[in-house]
Structure prediction request, 274 residues.
Amino acid sequence: MSFPSAPQPALFGRLLLTGAAGGLGRQLRPRLKAHCTHLRLSDIADLGTAAPGEELAPAALERADDMLRLLAGVDAVVHLGGVSVEGPFEPILQANIVGAYNLYEAARLQGVKRIVFASSNHVTGFYKQSETIDARMPVRPDGHYGLSKAFGENLAQFYFDRYGVETVSLRIGSSFPEPKDRRMLATWLSFDDLERLVVASLTAPVVGHTVIYGMSDNTTTWWDNTAARHIGYRALDTSEPFRAALQERQPALDASDPAVMYQGGGFVKQGPFE
Prediction:
């Protein structure tokens, strides 16, 4: 005779999700609620209406006072906030560099001990697509955005070494409903695998500062995550079902095109900006 299993208790009291109005924030918002009693949502864009168990807390990353209030009473942070595309340096400086510092300093002051930081594959965008790399290799940012994420990873390392704030830095590839081009056969991260990666990063017993590439179980890949196996992330999706259609759509690629040559794709060609 079988009995229904008891509901699993939430793992966290209060989680903070920054960038909650962005593309990935909107995907994680309903998914993370299952893992906490209270989900605090922050962005400078419209967050809509709070669902049961949600707290709406608009805040500007570049304002230190906003961050200090935002981190109060928080058990862990999923930090997606900031500029998420390549562009002029000044907005990226304020949101991604000053903003990341403000968030980590607020975490220190408020006693928050675990952050999941949305870094990017563009931290290593100037490695070639003919190479397989891991997170221990030197960074090679492909633009202002990649530079800001490299700073964020160094910031995370410093706050762990100096203050014991643990971070998993996720070098997210391309997280969309499906791959958009042949490059994304290597970089694609499904939304379900994104959730698995974030939850594993939040719940792994010990992480220190770990850097892991955010990708699904793709047949083609440029990134080796062996050194981050202690996180416990296991991708269950793959870009392979989309391969035939994408190869038909892009039957030939120009190997001399920097967007084809380098892992960062089109980011390596953007700028300079006026």
User: Anything to note?
Assistant: The longest helix spans residues 89-110. The radius of gyration is 19 Å. The beta strands are 12-18, 36-42, 54-56, 76-79, 114-120, 133-134, 166-172, 209-214, 223-224.
